[in-house]
Write a structure and sequence with these properties.
Blueprint (H helix, E strand, L loop, with lengths): L1 H26 L15 H16 L10 H14 L1 H4 L36 H10 L15 H12 L8 H8 L3
Helix pairs in contact: 3-6, 3-7, 5-6
Amino acid sequence: MRKGSLVLSSFVLGMIALPAILYLYFFVGQTPVAVADKPFPFEAAIVSVPLHARIDREMPKQSPLAMTDDNLVAGMQIYREQCAWCHGLKAPSKFGPTMFPRAPQLWERHKNEPDVVGVSDDPVGETYWKVKNGIRLSGMPSYKTLLTEEQMWQVAMVLSVADKPLLPAAAKIFVTRSP
């Protein structure tokens, strides 16, 4: 009986002590909250696992728009006006690398996969979901009240072909000019 009460009291003490220790850790101001701070241990996993699970569950499987020159030019123009400040064009953004997490440069080739540019290896529905909903605590805003459904799909489509020679000349002009 005495061993059982010792286990129970240890459990109760742990249930009280752990939240108290966490509260003190946050209260004393040592938590990494500045962009220049090193990330929390396991921060990337803690954030990316539920994010990808939600995107996988909710993203549309295909675009309702056709991959036409008009849609790609419109998407590139919207990207240049709304996204390039953080995500860059052919020249990298000045703002994106100073964010935490760092805003991906969507016109750069991947270092480990040189055939992939930006998010061109993601399904178009995933990119659309990110444009529409944003990503909490990353600086990526939700555009669902700023752009129309058609505009969000146009941006997602242009990013899905960033590594392919499908961009019409009129869209390529927007990639090379400064925002």
